[in-house]
Amino acid sequence: MSLQNPVFIPGPTNIPEAIRKACDVPTIDHRSPLFATILHPALDGVRKVLKQTRGETFIFPASGTGGWETALSNTLNPGDRVLAARNGMFSHKWIDMCQRFGLQVTQVDVPWGEGLPVAQFEEILREDERGSIKAVLATHNETATGVVSDIAGLRRAMDAAGHGALLLVDGVSSIGSMDFRFDAWGVDVAVTGSQKGFMLPAGLAIVGFSEKAVAASKTATLPRTFWSIDDMRKGYAADAYPYTPSVGLMNGLKLATEMLLAEGLDTVFARHARIAEGVRAAVAAWGMKPCAVSPDLYSNTVTAIRTPEGFNASRIVEHAATRYGMAFGTGLGDVAGKVFRIGHLGSLTDAMALSGIATAEMVMADLGLDITLGSGVAAAQAVYRHGAAAERMAAQ
Amino acid sequence: MSLQNPVFIPGPTNIPEAIRKACDVPTIDHRSPLFATILHPALDGVRKVLKQTRGETFIFPASGTGGWETALSNTLNPGDRVLAARNGMFSHKWIDMCQRFGLQVTQVDVPWGEGLPVAQFEEILREDERGSIKAVLATHNETATGVVSDIAGLRRAMDAAGHGALLLVDGVSSIGSMDFRFDAWGVDVAVTGSQKGFMLPAGLAIVGFSEKAVAASKTATLPRTFWSIDDMRKGYAADAYPYTPSVGLMNGLKLATEMLLAEGLDTVFARHARIAEGVRAAVAAWGMKPCAVSPDLYSNTVTAIRTPEGFNASRIVEHAATRYGMAFGTGLGDVAGKVFRIGHLGSLTDAMALSGIATAEMVMADLGLDITLGSGVAAAQAVYRHGAAAERMAAQ
Amino acid sequence: MSLQNPVFIPGPTNIPEAIRKACDVPTIDHRSPLFATILHPALDGVRKVLKQTRGETFIFPASGTGGWETALSNTLNPGDRVLAARNGMFSHKWIDMCQRFGLQVTQVDVPWGEGLPVAQFEEILREDERGSIKAVLATHNETATGVVSDIAGLRRAMDAAGHGALLLVDGVSSIGSMDFRFDAWGVDVAVTGSQKGFMLPAGLAIVGFSEKAVAASKTATLPRTFWSIDDMRKGYAADAYPYTPSVGLMNGLKLATEMLLAEGLDTVFARHARIAEGVRAAVAAWGMKPCAVSPDLYSNTVTAIRTPEGFNASRIVEHAATRYGMAFGTGLGDVAGKVFRIGHLGSLTDAMALSGIATAEMVMADLGLDITLGSGVAAAQAVYRHGAAAERMAAQ
Amino acid sequence: MSLQNPVFIPGPTNIPEAIRKACDVPTIDHRSPLFATILHPALDGVRKVLKQTRGETFIFPASGTGGWETALSNTLNPGDRVLAARNGMFSHKWIDMCQRFGLQVTQVDVPWGEGLPVAQFEEILREDERGSIKAVLATHNETATGVVSDIAGLRRAMDAAGHGALLLVDGVSSIGSMDFRFDAWGVDVAVTGSQKGFMLPAGLAIVGFSEKAVAASKTATLPRTFWSIDDMRKGYAADAYPYTPSVGLMNGLKLATEMLLAEGLDTVFARHARIAEGVRAAVAAWGMKPCAVSPDLYSNTVTAIRTPEGFNASRIVEHAATRYGMAFGTGLGDVAGKVFRIGHLGSLTDAMALSGIATAEMVMADLGLDITLGSGVAAAQAVYRHGAAAERMAAQ
């Protein structure tokens, strides 16, 4: 593995120079006033990226998975019923967590490559006249399949069904890279991590709670200490944490939000869309198809690519690593061996993206797939030549 | 707050240059073979520092507090009874966590400044003939009071009582700085973090499980996902994590254990003892006393210093920060306002320690305490002139 | 300009992560024993890269240009005659320096794109029966044109002519990337810098002196202080410098030589040859030609590419920087506007090289040149797929 | 030697965190527009620190010694006469450089510990009716002895003598730390380096030229290429360098000047004065004397301390390094073995200074000198308690 090549895993992403430096700080007393000048701007910045003006926001010193646990344990009670779809490894894992917490999961199985079945959810919610479903879980962007789901539509469906369940959204691989509207979509808990759109190393679980979710936390009885938003809120009020925070990552997060907001969220999203379009153009040029079954489901942060029947897609990832020192993502769960993934989120230039596409071509050719060298690159180049964001990247 | 002054909080500690660099890495694919070359040496190094040859060791990407949660949730069942002493803020908080998990805590209250009441514990365990106590919780080093407790003695007492409870030990502010013997002391779960003796930023919870504790995890029914050692074990077997690890911190931990073992654990402990002795000599020269009530309880990683009656000790910490840009620790909980703390763990030279002592003198004089300038420094210098470890530090 | 894209200027090169860290050190007393542990391994490492076992080696805290001045001022006297060819901007500049020093230059003008005229030099030297020529200047690799000259052949010619002039060689953009044999080629002074094959930032001028060149320094009367090898030698004997050295860069140089030697010089040279061959394959696919007029002159560290008549080649460099945030080299002097340059030396992977080639294609297409997108990439991919050094790069 | 202790050599200084990061940059094309955004602010910042509004300023990628060579070679002709005093190692070395350049030096020998003999210089200049003296050399701060000379007074003396010689000033260890007024003092060439008041690593020679000095460069015939201000000026006009610049150090210099100007030059000077006063108070408490013979000569950047007759002062430096991992400066030249030096310039807090003083006390006691432990610390503490700049340092 080369430390000089960009990575093309769907997170952690490539880290901009300035963010690496912001994370690498000498020890700062986390109970000193200096820490307050990091904590509050970081929280404020996150809220702007979430488009969250109501409720509360919390940052835990842990991986993003902890955000799922925060969402559940602060809002639900043992035995509560939740509604969730399983359309990829990450939605699968969140459901598994629910079960471990003793929640009853109404699970809707969806072929991997499809999105959250909004109409079916609406139907189920309509039928739940007694309101036994306490929360709806939604994975905004399935990292395993490169499928984006329609959270705004889900909110409309919930409203149409007149159902009062909480809407808990996993935005780990979407927030900061694709449009996400905490307020407008009526999200009750949004979960993300530091290592995707925020371009940081892993180590921060970031969660937004609506006022309704905060209210639920007052009575929720699932056990929690580390993930307690009550403790966290009390800490913030004293410019501190209930335990030792990750000061360097917080400082990096502060800068990351400044960078995203300085670039402009719409510009950031457009940049991701452009890079992703180039990758998809390459996939088409190779005669392949994304795992996502229709264009409206295409993710702008990760593309899972179906390889020919009978070919073990994981060989691509392995060969790329050992032969060219480059990291791609393997297929997981139901699509293991059937897809490989190109992550294209965070801080990425056209030139970086092209090096990934070019390397993927060599790898597939080496492994005997019928790939015309340069074909995917040429298709992506055609897209990138008409993009407009390179100049902005220059500032980093 | 100056970024150039050493910090004298009882963790996170000053970070050696080489460790900062080891933590600050470009993104490495945590599912690539390269990660295995970080993960396993880090685990092996930790085991050597813990003096653990049996059972299993886990590293969670979270603050040390998460280690407490790991210890409880993997070994206990709702309603289980545990025995614990409350002799400082951190033992207090661990008890609080037990209660939130629905455990029944047999709590022994001990004046802050005293150690774990081994004889009283033995008595309680003897009386528990039915074995209702499932775990004994012990804080090896109370960071709030600078008191070290006798874990070896506790193990002897448990054995003498013929009690089969698990021995769960919080070694957050002792492990890596003071002698800790996982095997020899019969520890069942040892908990620590990255930001103390390991000289890293916060962000890793490190736990050792004995075979007995691992066995308990097979039936323990407290809910867990993020903190599940089962998931973690499965991850390690595949050279991976059940979620995204903190690769940079893991790489730093690998180096930290190499540095500790290269220096020699006994030398590391002797260095901490020497630095601590100098600080205590300074305290005596100031006409003050440690919070720890007797010399056998003196911690070699942190000294809590009682200030004169009627004086708010927190002013020292505040004035040191704003006037001299230096960080000390405040008193917490029962001793808030009554003590201030000098952390002296991790990577610290005599010269650094003297700068802290000299600054503390200026601060106390500024605030009207009756301190002879230079007196504490002179007392510490007398200690440090006879130490022998400076040369080793030179290599860092 | 993006800090995330690799650079394709012919030096300073992309800096490997480990070298950046080795250069970024806290202040180290340059008169302490610690400095000796940096200085001598750095010097020894350089000697191995130069293949120099005789004479002396010096490292000046200055840009490589200072190496030229060191070569001249320590070996020559005002009015001395030197023989030099002008076949690019850097040979031109060295001649200019000679003239400023009051040396008489016998200048042979060679079309830019050609190499050093060995036969003509031999003839001139044969004619110089009285030995009025004191030194022959040779630019091993003309960075402006991407032309490598035959130093071994020049030595044979000098010997054949029976001429005793010193052989002063500019190896700035060859040493560490292409084979260079100080001893075997009878080089008297070799000059290089830190920012090319050694993969460091600019700031060190590195020079090797043969015993004959050292002997010449005993009587040479050109003025020198900063560049005095006598002062430098005295410093080294005391593990020090005659003035303040660049400790961080020296520490980086020590590591750089370790890395080059660990990879193996032959492997390093083969890697450069492979990357270069890929670039030249791309150039051919674009229907263009290198500035170097014949394959034996092709440089493995930089390729200067002739653009079509009437097209200002500098636009490529400008557009690449402003549109795609990528740096290429402009044409200089006689070939300004006629060539642009792709630097491919130092630490470079196939994937990085492909990103440069792909970007160059977009740039040229944007500017209206008749380029088939992907064509150069495909040609380079074909070369890189058969290379073998990617695995070694993985370790970095 | 510890990398964690502050250094107390008189340069290179301790480097603030932010400056280390500013110097540690990925490769930036030094011919790209991005470089212009570093170059010009760095030059502008230097001019403000020099208090230079007229003439020109140049930054060479070399050690400060190169600045001396720049001053001489751009303004003088072989055989020219210069006036200089020898009152320390650095004035001695500059004179030596003059002699190597073939200049005639009218050398005034002054006991080391005294300043530049202004009255005697005035007399010599008055006697030079034909104006044969072309330049007066003055060392503003003799780093070897800790003596500051009166440049303003020298200018008045030159004017009083009606002499038109150029005034060349070595401000290497004064500029940025003590008041320096290029314009007001009529300085013709000011020389400094990056590694003192600018708090950077060594590697930049910084020179200011008055219009008169620039005019002299038009006819000066000493040979120069690397140090040519003409070449440098042409480079700057094209946003570039005549050869490869040290981009990282330039970027650091830009930040360093921003930091100095944000703090305020007067505040910076007051901070140095305060720290120095504390060191001198410690020296007095030890019963010792500075090498500088009178208070008006005391340097605020370095104190050379005379040790008792018969004691080899170099043992202090050696013992401090090997026993406590701390760096002080040895005596040089005429005062070798008679003094040791404490450098106290650049970015230094009270706490850091006290660690140096406390360590020096231990060292001297270890070596058998009659030192009361804590005495110097107490004296310095008394000074530092009344200082006011600690808060500002906090921001760094």
Automatic annotation (TrEMBL), chains A, B, C, D:
Listed cofactors: pyridoxal 5'-phosphate
Keywords recorded for this protein, A-Z: Aminotransferase, Pyridoxal phosphate, Transferase
Coiled-coil blocks: none
Domain Aminotransferase class V: 31-286
Gene Ontology molecular function: transaminase activity
Source domain of life: Bacteria
Family of the protein in this entry: Belongs to the class-V pyridoxal-phosphate-dependent aminotransferase family.
Name assigned to this protein: Aminotransferase class V-fold PLP-dependent enzyme
The organism of origin for this protein: Thalassococcus arenae
